[in-house]
Design a protein that fits this description.
The chain is of the alpha/beta class. It folds into 2 domains: 2-169 and 343-361, Glycogen Phosphorylase B (Rossmann fold, 3-Layer(aba) Sandwich), CATH 3.40.50.2000; 182-331, Rossmann fold (3-Layer(aba) Sandwich). 46% of the residues lie in helices and 14% in strands. It has 16 helices and 12 strands. Strands 3-2-1-4-5-6 form a 6-stranded parallel beta sheet, with helices on both faces. Strands 9-8-7-10-11-12 form a 6-stranded parallel beta sheet, sandwiched between helices. Strand 5, helix 5 (128-139) and strand 6 form a beta-alpha-beta unit. The longest helix has 19 residues, at 67-85. The protein is globular, with a radius of gyration of 20 Å. The structure holds uridine-diphosphate-N-acetylglucosamine and uridine-5'-diphosphate. Uridine-5'-diphosphate (UDP) is lined by residues 10-11, 14, 203, 205, 237, 262-263, 265, 268, 282-285, 288. Residues 10-11, 14, 203, 205, 237, 262-263, 265, 268, 282-285, 288 line the site of uridine-5'-diphosphate.
Length: 368
């Protein structure tokens, strides 16, 4: 059997790594088609190396561009390579333009397409990701929502139950696989001269936040105000989109916020698990902090991961400084003993089981 994977951005590499590895364990051959949406080393190759993945078989080198241009170029390239590979299934993950392009190209070729992390909805149509999610979920054949709640949202949209299987989120597989390694190999605390529990962590890269000067400035001001009350420094690994906007808007970052380059996965996990509090507008970071037991303050008006809020791990504050300070005050005392909503860390296995990639699909027989 052959499984193809289309991916293009940092979170897709991290969340598909456990599925690719599970294919290897089951002797399902894999072909990875990288769209090239992310191309900076710190968002791309560093994760293949650290997560011990073979370099992608194909890189379309599409790079940055307008949504239509980027997505269209991807569809053309992916179609060609899918025709050559003729896989039994095509995996896509999440809600990026790469995910959308993979789902469209696979679906048009009548290849079985499986969407990992299906069913998430923020109900905020200003987010490009929300539009992508809706199109992807209605185009694919197999939907793997992380939770029962997300599965219900798919059913409410009329998607037939026999295409939906709740599996948990593969981010739990990844965190469980690498958390211990991260603790033992990462020297980031020493490198940045930090003590566990005595600093905050920030990520902010969403287009609707950083592409708006006032909004981005408010977020930086609010996070700094919240951290200063505790005399905490804030570590902010700056995504390239945010870096471009800081320069374009000539925004000055408050002194207590220490900007650093995007971190590799082990260093980032180490900071997430030892931070006093995490401020973020990332989807994956809301999930990881919930899994790692670190309280999270989400710098958005809503979330497609409400399970984290119901668990008591996350609160949604938007971008106004007063709201950010109030959210931090509410979340900082939390001790992280909430129930984990995103599964047991075996999502990749459940997905491959559902597709019938079991022992009978082995191309090599086990040795006597
Ligand atoms: C994309 C996804 C977003 C996801 C994020 C993960 C879409 C619509 N957005 O957003 O859902 O949360 O990835 O990080 O698919 N750039 C670089 N180097 C790179 C990549 C980008 O410098 O390797 C810069 C370029 O200036 C580019 C900008 O970042 O214009 C934005 O990149 P793009 O891939 O369009 O969107 P992201 O903001 O990364
Ligand atoms: N991440 C990382 N280094 C960083 C920031 C984030 O390795 O400096 C990882 C993080 O652990 C998570 C993923 O990147 O698994 C989240 O990606 P991002 O925030 O770019 O995208 P989103 O999840 O919002 O789509």
């Amino acid at each position: 059997a052959t499984a193809a994977f289309v991916l293009g951005t940092r979170p897709e590499i991290i969340k598909l790594a456990p599925v690719i590895k599970e294919c290897d364990r089951r002797d399902v051959s894999t072909i990875v088609i990288h769209t090239g949406q992310h191309y900076s080393k710190s968002l791309d190759t560093v994760f293949f190396r650290q997560l011990d993945l073979a370099p992608p078989a194909v890189n379309l080198d599409v790079g940055s561009g307008s949504h239509g241009e980027q997505t269209g170029e991807m569809v053309i390239g992916i179609e060609q390579h899918l025709k050559d590979a003729d896989p039994d299934v095509l995996f896509v993950q999440g809600d990026t333009n790469s995910t959308l392009a993979g789902a469209l190209a696979g679906s048009k070729l009548d290849i079985e397409v499986a969407h990992i992390e299906a069913g998430l909805r923020s109900y905020d149509r200003d987010m490009p990701e929300e539009r992508n999610r809706i199109i992807i979920d209605h185009a694919v054949d197999h939907l793997y929502p992380p939770t029962g709640e997300t599965a219900n949202l798919l059913r409410e949209e009329g998607i037939s139950d026999n295409r939906i299987t709740v599996t948990g989120n593969t981010i739990v597989d990844a965190v469980m696989a690498y958390d211990d390694t991260s603790s033992s190999v990462s020297s980031i605390l020493a490198d940045l001269d930090l003590s566990p529990g005595e600093f905050d962590l920030l990520t902010a890269h969403r287009a609707e936040n950083v592409d708006d000067r006032d909004r981005f400035a408010n977020i930086l001001f609010g996070v700094a105000a919240a951290a200063t009350r505790r005399e905490n420094d804030v570590i902010y690994p700056v995504h390239p989109r945010a870096k471009d906007r800081l320069e374009e808007f000539d925004l000055s970052v408050p002194d207590c916020i220490r900007t650093v380059e995007p971190l590799d996965f082990f260093d980032f996990l180490r900071l997430e698990s030892t931070a006093s509090l995490v401020f973020t507008d990332s989807g994956g970071v809301q999930e990881e902090t919930c899994v790692l037991g670190t309280p999270c303050v989400t710098l958005r008006n809503g979330t497609e991961r409400p399970e984290t809020v119901f668990a008591g791990a996350n609160c949604i504050v938007g971008h106004r400084p007063d709201d950010i300070v109030a959210g931090a005050r509410q979340m900082r005392p939390k001790v992280g003993d909430w129930e984990l909503p995103f599964g047991d860390g075996n999502a990749s296995e459940y997905i491959l089981d559902d597709l019938g990639f079991d022992a009978s699909h082995r191309t090599r027989q086990p040795q006597e």
